Amino acid sequence: MNRKTWNQDLLREAGRRFRLAGHFTGGEPYGSGHINDTFAVTYDQGGTRVRYIFQRLNSRVFRDPEGLMDNVARVCRHTAAKVERDAPPGDVNRRALTMVEAGDGKPFWVDDAGDYWRAYFFIEHASTHDVITSPAQAREAARAFGRFQSMLADFPADSLRETIPDFHHTRKRVEALRRAVGEDRGGRAKDAGPELEFALSREELAGILLDLHAAGEMPARVTHNDTKLNNVMLDNATGEGVCVIDLDTVMPGLSLYDFGDMVRTAVSPAAEDERDLAKVAVRPEFFEALAGGFLSSAGSVLRPVEREHLVTAGKLLTYENGIRFLTDYLLGDVYFRVKRPGHNLDRCRTQFALLRELERRENELGRMVKDIPAG
User: Fold this and answer.
1) What is the total count of domains within the chain?
2) pLDDT at 59
3) What one-character DSSP code corresponds to residue 2?
4) What is the largest CA-CA distance in the chain?
5) Do 243 and 123 contact (CB within 8 A), yes or no?
6) Are strands 232-235 and 126-127 parallel, antiparallel or unpaired?
7) For the purposes of burial, counting CB atoms within 10 Å of the CB of 363, is it exposed (0-12), middle (13-18) or buried (19 or more)?
8) What residues have CB less than 8 Å from 129, skipping those under 6 apart?
9) Cα–Cα distance between 358 and 261 in angstroms, integer?
10) pLDDT tens, 86-103?
């Protein structure tokens, strides 16, 4: 998926549409996200340099941008209200994602091309990490995501819109893969034989959490649904998990979707698109840190059945994302932004290699969960 064009004049015009003080001095692309176009933009406010985040939403992915922005605005207000009770004065904008309203009071602006824009306060002195390098980082990130879920435990999940219907409905992801194989738009299926065989051999995994939810044993909650560890800001000085970001997929979901995505993005030292599969491994100490951090902040709102399936969640989300990358490869790279030929197939192979490792160490990881004190 290719980025749309941008220039300084476009960023300056976007800034005029939001309630920002000071003078625009420039902006540039920021972050490593696959979907939206993100920019760090600087304003001069009486000699003080202040930064904001501008984002242009990808309307090919998010078909209901106004519904999405209503979700985000409401969740931001709810979490900010919770943070205000505990955060030091003036620190709320660092510990809760804070939107800047457009001039008309809406949480977005629509440009002449029909693209939706939004603005946030920039969270200074904190960073995201594509690859977590220590168990302490993993624990703090997991604690932040658990705290986010806990803060929203009293928010009515059914009042949020599904920004991407069936986002984590893994059975439907498998069905989409089968359709992509049948269509084989670009003649790529011939290059993905082993990956297709592996994906279909693990199909039973797709229904485990869905069946528990259908039986009423696992409740729907307000969940982030995209808990890659580069979606949480860690304080540069203390390492503390400061703020959860990228709320586009906040909607009703299962708590274990959030935990499972953390597992798939943190337990291996390899990058998500690593070509050398020998580098893909499970670091048990990182899994233990994730489980401990998540349960320390969300454990009090979780049911026993959710705790019991933490390891399953890691396997499921790794499997699901492997399927998503493989499907997008077969469809011609229409969803995830790619940087080289076969990039999505490389991502798929990395996910499936990690799933094999999670399967191999499943009993060991399960024992770790049992040894963690209740949150």
Assistant:
1) 2
2) 83
3) P
4) 62
5) yes
6) antiparallel
7) exposed
8) 137, 229, 230, 234
9) 13
10) 777 678 888 999 999 999
Pairing of strands 221-223, 116-121: unpaired
Q: How many residues does the chain have?
A: 375
- Element (H or E) spanning 145, and its range? helix 135-151
Query: Quick one: 120 and 141 in the same domain?
Result: no
Q: Are residues 259 and 340 in the same domain?
A: yes
Q: What pLDDT, on the 0 to 100 scale, is given for residue 65?
A: 94
Shared domain for 139 and 119, answered yes or no, is no
Tokens linked to 274: 């690593």
Give the closest residue to 318 by CA, choosing from 258, 263, 256, 255: 263
Sites in the chain below the pLDDT cut of 50: 1-2
- Give, for 26, the enclosing helix (H) or strand (E): strand 23-29
Nearest to 148 by CA among 95, 98, 99, 100: 95
Q: Which residue type sits at 126?
A: A
Give dist(CA 38, CA 187) in Å, integer.
33
Q: Which among 218, 83, 88, 85 has a CA at the least distance from the CA of 144?
A: 83
> Using the 8-state DSSP alphabet, how is residue 18 labeled?
B
Q: Are residues 87 and 203 in the same domain?
A: no
Rg from Cα positions in the chain: 20
Give the C-alpha separation, 292 to 229, whole Å: 15
Residue type, 352: F
Unique residue bearing structure tokens 């930064």 = 51
Which pLDDT score is estimated for 3?
59
Encoded tokens for 310 = 């933490």
**48: domain range?**
8-124
Dihedral sign, Cα of residue 83, residue 88, residue 90, residue 95: negative
pLDDT computed for residue 2 by the predictor: 44
Element (H, E) at 261: helix 255-266
Task: Tell me if 293 sits within 8 A of 368, measured CB to CB.
Answer: no
In this prediction, residue 1 carries a pLDDT of: 39
Quickly tell me which residue has 């998540």 as its tokens. 294
Closest to 218 in 3D by CA, of 145, 148, 305, 149: 305
